[in-house]
Amino acid sequence: MKKKIAVISLGCPKNWVDTELMVGLLKATGEVELVSSLEAADVILVNTCGFITPAKEESIDEILNAIEAKKQSPDKKVVVAGCLYQRYKEELKRELPEVDAFIGVNELLRSVERILNRKAAVRKPYLYREVLTPPHLAYLKIAEGCSNACTYCAIPIIRGPLKSRPVNEVVEEAKRLAERGVKELYVIAQDTTAYRRDFGEEKALIKLLEQLEKVEGIEWIRLMYTYPSHITDNLIDYMASSEKLVKYIDVPLQHINDKVLASMGRKYTRASAEKLLEKLRLRVPGIAIRTTFIVGFPTEGEAEFEELHTFIKEFKFDWAGFFKYSREEGTAAYRLGDLPEELKDSRLNLLEETQFWIYEELHRSLVGKRLKLIVDSPSSDMPGFVEARSYRNAYEIDGIVYLKGNHTPGKIVEAKVTGLASNVDLTAEPL
Questions:
Q1: What residues does [4Fe-4S] cluster 2 bind to (predicted)?
Q2: Does residue 146 have a known ligand-binding role?
Q3: Nearest-angstrom CA–CA distance, 208 and 332
Q4: How far apart are CA 219 and CA 238, in angstroms?
Q5: Which of 29, 103, 287, 368 has the fewest beta carbons under 10 Å from its own?
């Protein structure tokens, strides 16, 4: 009889890929099946995030939920994997004796051994990934770790320095994904623009993108997690001319004030960031730019915050995420202290409110425009519509487009924007 496994995957898409790899290796044995209920599961696998405090708290809550389910059925196993364990190995083993097994971020290939008590006899494990996103889209992780040394970031502590994958391996994985019906690829890493820099290769990302464009079946390629000072003129030109690399870029700026950027260990200034943004908009017409900002960094005074606020109002990003600074032990910024939570909360709320009105203004300007949309799923919110996205919308990160009619998931439809469903979501009808 097959073992029933329930999987909880927390954190970023990079962690999601790790979950898919473990699930794929387990299913390749022919001895397991996935279930959605903790109660029905023989094994509960929790892949945790340990990046910042709220993520750590969520991970602990999910582990405790799994342990609670185990109390009702003592034969049930609880397995904890991922970043939280990698960061706090001894503490978790000591505090959570109910957990049956732990898997670190560098031990994913041992998931079969830890869960099924047998060796995983596979070559090229990345070809066994079980895509847990909608079948027409998938994340493609091209590197592990990071060497940028931002002072606030725990990723190098958890996952180590940059370790890029070989181009041929990444392309082989992309081909396998395309064979399984994937049409949209999300190229991800902690810093995708650092790809192969650990081998002294400066133009490897473009070479990789050129190879990915040749993969039959892949129609959209989306570039995520780019680092501002690693975005070259060559990459911008490539994006402008590419047929499959969509006119969308995720470029986390984190702040705009020079003093704060320097104390964050970011290797650029306001002037260079503005020059980059200007080039992107000038040379890639219609580009959608997503960014993120950290609010309440210890060196952010009122003047620095107001500079950031004014910049956001003036630049009008297509998408922006805002996060409160989380003081993390082991990072260089830990010694800088912290600002009061109430102050961080008020600054966060102000930026989010400002961006709310920017969204509405930007999306009203899209009404009447023609866009190609990729269909994700039928809509539970709007009967008679499906949920879709244009090149401007990354899956589960940005807003969606409600497309009128019944359309097959994965289909790309030419449509006309008819209105706003909210300040971030649009409505459209097929042409």
A1: 146, 150, 153
A2: yes
A3: 33
A4: 16
A5: 368
The architecture of the domain spanning 370-430 is: Beta Barrel (2.40)
Residues of the chain with CATH 2.40.50.140: 370-430
pLDDT at position 110 = 87
Tokens of 261: 């950027």
Q: Strands 43-48 and 77-82, how do they pair?
A: parallel
Answer for the pair 105, 92: CB distance below 8 angstroms, yes or no: no
pLDDT score for 230 = 97
Looking at the chain, the domain(s) classified CATH 3.40.50.12160 span: 3-124
Would the annotation count 150 as a binding residue? yes
Q: Parallel, antiparallel, or unpaired: how do β-strands 245-250 and 288-295 relate?
A: parallel
Q: DSSP secondary-structure letter at 50?
A: -
Report residue 367 CA to chain centroid gap: 28
Residue-level pLDDT at 117: 86
Select from 3.40.47.10, 3.80.30.20, 3.10.290.30, 3.40.50.360 the CATH code of 126-364. 3.80.30.20
Q: What is the pLDDT of residue 122?
A: 83
Residues of the chain falling short of pLDDT 50: none
Distance between CA atoms of residues 69 and 4, nearest Å: 14
Q: Is 49 part of any known ligand binding site?
A: yes
CATH of domain 3-124: 3.40.50.12160
153 is in an annotated binding site: yes
pLDDT tens, position by position, 296-310: 999 999 999 999 999
Query: Where along the chain do the CATH 3.80.30.20 domains lie?
Result: 126-364
Cα–Cα dist 322/302, whole Å? 17
Tokens 């939920």 locate to 65
Strand, coil or helix: 34: strand
- Secondary structure class of 223 (helix, strand, coil): strand
pLDDT digits (tens, 9 = 90+) for 371-430: 999 999 999 999 999 999 999 999 999 999 999 999 999 999 999 999 999 999 999 999
Q: Which of 341, 307, 303 is nearest to 325 (CA)?
A: 341
Q: Give every CB contact of residue 86 below 8 A, 6+ residues apart in sequence.
A: 50, 104, 105, 106, 158, 159
